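TICKET: design request
STATUS: open
ATTACHED STRUCTURE:
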């Protein structure tokens, strides 16, 4: 390889490393497997549906913003901002970025539960969302 070609390849690698758009590093199925392993049991779609649609002592449920079922565009309950469909079969980008999954579980669980969701709750919700098909 010529020195110039090596330099070009190195420059491309540097650009790729600092590119703000991230390639998918996970899938919804991998997220379900991860949280199921953390919980010590696989997610339960029926329990996930109940969890998703229930207010847990607060003003909101997950469905307040994401809809029931979460297969179409949602709308944030207080800001009105549109939200892409949450079910992976209806949104191929759903649950494909681990950092975003962790961030939004933390934020949304705090909004709905006033605490972080447990691994069991996350596995159940993911089982429910992954079970939704067109």
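STATUS: resolved
RESOLUTION: sequence designed for all positions
ATTACHED SEQUENCE:
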């Amino acid at each position: 390889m010529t020195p110039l070609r090596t330099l070009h390849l190195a420059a491309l690698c540097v650009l790729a490393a600092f590119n703000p758009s991230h390639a998918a590093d996970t899938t919804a199925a991998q997220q379900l497997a991860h949280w199921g392993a953390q919980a010590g049991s696989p997610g339960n779609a029926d329990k996930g549906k109940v969890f998703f649609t229930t207010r847990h002592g607060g003003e909101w449920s997950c469905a307040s913003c994401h809809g029931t079922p979460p297969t179409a565009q949602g709308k944030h309950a207080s800001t009105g901002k549109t939200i892409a469909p949450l079910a992976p079969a209806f949104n191929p980008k759903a649950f494909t970025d681990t950092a975003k999954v962790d961030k939004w579980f933390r934020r949304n669980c705090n909004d709905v539960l006033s605490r972080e969701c447990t691994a069991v709750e996350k596995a159940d919700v993911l089982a429910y969302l992954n079970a939704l098909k067109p």
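CLOSING REMARK: The first strand starts at residue 74 and ends at 75. The domain at 25-131 is CATH 1.10.760.10 (Cytochrome Bc1 Complex; Chain D, domain 2).
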